[in-house]
Amino acid sequence: MNPDAIKRSLAGSGLRSTPQRYAVMAFLMKQTSHPTAAEIFEAVNRVDPRSSRATIYNNLRDLVQAGLVREVAMEGRAARFDATGTRHHHFICDRCGKIEDMDWYAVPRPAAASLGKRVLRECELICRGLCTQCASRRAPTQDSGLKERINTWKKK
Amino acid sequence: MNPDAIKRSLAGSGLRSTPQRYAVMAFLMKQTSHPTAAEIFEAVNRVDPRSSRATIYNNLRDLVQAGLVREVAMEGRAARFDATGTRHHHFICDRCGKIEDMDWYAVPRPAAASLGKRVLRECELICRGLCTQCASRRAPTQDSGLKERINTWKKK
DNA sequence: ACAACTATTTAGATCATATCTAATCTGAAA
DNA sequence: TTTCAGATTAGATATGATCTAAATAGTTGT
């Protein structure tokens, strides 16, 4: 996506295009993974160190509100973000916490009767299990496993 | 659910039945809402003040690991818990953050080809929109709305 | 009933994540 | 240009969750 397109989509949501906000958006769009706010902060400032932590959070909040970015809450870990260019479902690894995009396919919505007076905006599918890497290893690939091993070791 | 049944399901997962752990489980089972850890802490201790905060978190972690309790991560808010007695999907209100259970219905799983070597454990549907109460009001029913109103007011 | 073993609990410190504050700056409309 | 609401900032603060090390209490075997 070219710079002007990003600026236009920001303007379209009533958001000014500032260097900081542009950087967050551009970074998220070229990212296939789902970075945390801290990762975005670091990556953006590595290129151009003009964003404070508050600004990253402010902009993420605004971009999410504008529907340009999606936030995925994680059990016990920092939230992760992606630019909602193409529609997709999510796969979360039970073991290492990684989020991966799954091809999108239509999911049946709840029946009107069961919705009642609720107003439905969207339905997303969260799949859980083991990612390719974790599935093929006995030991976890990240912290949770390290902790486990240390605990086991301590007790001996 | 009677006391013995709870104790049996704890034992079945290799967990001792302690007053504190029993209290958390019993409270979650009779709850139709989805309390946060803080709410569980308060409710459990109102009846019998013997649980520390760490114990609540320890037990929630153990119960989730045992598959007796489900944790639902929330964007920007405390995680919420429910005892996974009956299977159901979730509806999260964009405005007040309330979680409600939706009737369960089967959701098509991702195609084997798109899963690759990943190991799928479960798929859950997260529906978002406005709850009955919020849909019928102009003003939000909780904090986010209050903040909004205060901000608007400040700038005048 | 008792000893022995280990899981569990505890208060408080600490960590991790996110938000707020109030002063300052800036993009873009007129 | 001027103007000003929107945006940014550093640092303080709030919130949510976990860790520590010592004390306690269920289980099991005798």
Topology:
The structure is a homodimer of 156-residue chains.
Chain A: H1 3-12, H2 19-29, H3 37-47, H4 53-65, E1 69-74, E2 77-83, E3 88-93, E4 99-103, H5 112-115, E5 119-130, H6 132-135, H7 143-154
Parallel strand pairs in A: 3-5
Antiparallel strand pairs in A: 1-2, 3-4
Chain A binds a DNA duplex (30 and 30 nucleotides) through helix 4 and strand 2.
Q: What would you report as the Rg of chain A, rounded to the nearest angstrom?
A: 19 Å
Shape of chain A: globular
Low-confidence stretches of chain A: 138-156
CATH superfamily of the largest domain in chain A: Winged helix-like DNA-binding domain superfamily/Winged helix DNA-binding domain
Count, helices of chain A:
7
Number of strands of chain A: 5
Quick recap:
By secondary structure, chain A is of the alpha+beta class. The first copy, chain A, is 42% helix and 23% strand.
